[in-house]
Amino acid sequence: MPKSIAARLALGYGLLLAISIAIVCGVFYFGTIGVLDRSVDRKLTVLSERLALLYRPEDSTRTSAEIAHLLTDRTDSDTEIFLLVSAEGRRISGNLSSWPVAESPAGKLLHVHVTREGRVVPARLLIRDLIDGSRLYVGRAMLESDSIRTLVLRSIAYGGGVAIVLMVAGAWLFRRQLEARIGQIRRTAAEIEAGDLSQRIPVASDDEFGKLSRDINRMLDRIEHLMEGVRHVSNAIAHDLRTPLARVRNKLDGALRQPQTVQAWQGAAQSAIADIDDLTRVFDKLLQIAAAESGMRPEYFSDIDLQQIGADIVEMYEATADEQGVLLVQLYGPELPARGDRNLLGSALASLVDNAIKYAGQGSTVEVSCGQDAAGAWLAVRDNGPGVPASELPKLTQRFYRLDKSRHLPGNGLGLSIVAAIAALHGGSLEVEDAAPGLCVRLRLNR
């Protein structure tokens, strides 16, 4: 019980319902029997005061006559109780043959048993002391009221019993449904823990559990995507880094096996260092991707101008473009304010421009632009080179992926992966489109 939130919620629900039932029963009881008792008490008080005003010590005839009239007027005559007793305890008038002893307190309403017309009955009785020591008893037989009271209490008992049964059944059903919904989540978690990342929580409603299930499923989709990325990277690293590592080893092994001059040793060492530097750059780029995908840099976001970032990158690559025979231009426009990390966006745009210059080919044109539409602000690089086959476009952002025709060019297939990670960090995405001719890559920021 202490460890089960379902049991505690069911118990709390049951206790709350029990308290509610008790309150309703109490209100019902005091709203029926209580009203009847108060009505009887008011009538007894009024009659007692009325008879007391008629009483005279020297002559009780008027009071006795009024008592006789009240007992025969056919208004509550079957339940009315009256008795006038002298100071010596002698019965003067009334319909009681036995009554409470003289020591009974006067001025208070009592619930007692008396003998009325030879029959013992429960009665509500008001005793009043008169001015000469005589006593006036005014009451009402409570047979009918007691019957109503018994009926009400029995109804409350039966209704309360049924309510308790329903309460227990409802609490059990509540706990069972709650445990069933939680059980679905736990079973899915256990299957995922066992290694099946494709499992998802069934969503059968739009309630809180349904919303929670959707949130968890989205999280699982993201985790599965990341795990697939990790597996892909692992496979790509094993495949793409095996060759350069083997090349470094072979060079060093060859240098050790044969007599070498100092210059030959230096050449082998420099070649090995160059290959190792290439590997270091690959791992640096992987670290950049991990840093961007971690989402840990939003605190460095600031107000930036995308037009100015484009101008800076174009100025930085103009010389390189001239050397490659490529015309690098910027499509100027008004300032375009945005919010993001200036260094990361500059690095991403630089990578796009570098790729465009490298793969567009001599005599091509590379355009750098920025803009804004309903989906948000963007930076774009477009070229009119040979482009990429439509079937290859979705694969360009995969880590270590390179087209067969570009494998002879320097690179490692991580540039667009880094740009895609930076776009995701800014709440956007990387869009790769066929520019017909050439290729258009758009780094889109979130609105």
From TrEMBL:
InterPro entries on file: HAMP_dom, HATPase_C_sf, HATPase_dom, His_kinase_dom, HisK_dim/P_dom, HisK_dim/P_sf, Sig_transdc_His_kin-like_C, TCS_sensor_his_kinase
Q: List the GO terms this entry assigns under cellular component, sorted alphabetically.
A: plasma membrane
Write down the Pfam families for this protein, in alphabetical order: HAMP, HATPase_c
What are the recorded GO MF terms, alphabetically?
Answer: phosphorelay sensor kinase activity
* Enzyme Commission code(s) on record: 2.7.13.3
According to its UniProt record, which reaction does this protein catalyse? ATP + protein L-histidine = ADP + protein N-phospho-L-histidine
PROSITE patterns reported for this sequence? HAMP (PS50885), HIS_KIN (PS50109)
- Keywords (A to Z) from UniProt: Kinase, Membrane, Phosphoprotein, Transferase, Transmembrane, Transmembrane helix, Two-component regulatory system
Q: Where in the cell is it found?
A: Membrane
> Per the database record, which ranges form the Histidine kinase domain?
236-447
* Keyword flag Transmembrane helix: yes
Instruction: Report domain HAMP positions.
Output: 176-228
The regions listed as transmembrane in this protein's record are: 12-36, 151-174
Q: What is this protein called?
A: histidine kinase
Q: Origin organism of this chain?
A: Janthinobacterium psychrotolerans
